Amino acid sequence: MTASPSSHPPSFLSKIIFRSIREEDLPQLEWEGEYSHFRQVYAAAYRRSLTGHTLIWVIEIPEKQIIGQVFVQLNSDRPELADGSSRAYLYAFRIRPEYRNLGLGSIVLDLVEESMAQMGFLYLTLNVAKNNLDAQRLYRRKGYAVMAHEPGRWSYTDHQGVLRHVVEPAWRMEKKLKPPKS
């Protein structure tokens, strides 16, 4: 049964589980086929997580359904995105549509930011599509500022072995993280 925001009890958010990904979670990131074209992208990110180069968290409801995800790359060949020590890059932040506009995005961002600050990172960067106005509003509300235009050109191999090229103009946004509480 598909949930709608109005069907969630007030305590819904208190039951959310935010945890590191496990290999057996990977198929659920495909959302019943909607994102199966990213299967190899997800698998590669998972392998990077095993070597400590990427962090991947999932958002789960008590029924054990994954309703969201967020990836953080710790280092990159583009130090303005991630440099391995002071700057990390958030990407693939996705929440199922029926669970949006409930405050979950804000909660997840807070958890990611706190985790990154505890690891010693000072800044969190991300790219947001120029046509994704809802996400831009969330990031601005959470203190992210536009730093630059990103052409948004990248490629990946899909689940059928086809090389796909993406052009998704974006804004690079950044936030200075609060130091961890002592």
Automatic annotation (TrEMBL):
InterPro entries: Acyl_CoA_acyltransferase (IPR016181), GNAT_dom (IPR000182). It comes from Ornatilinea apprima. This is N-acetyltransferase domain-containing protein. One of its GO terms (molecular function) is acyltransferase activity, transferring groups other than amino-acyl groups. Gene3D superfamilies: 3.40.630.30. Transmembrane segments: none annotated. It holds the Pfam family Acetyltransf_1. Residues 16-178 form the N-acetyltransferase domain.
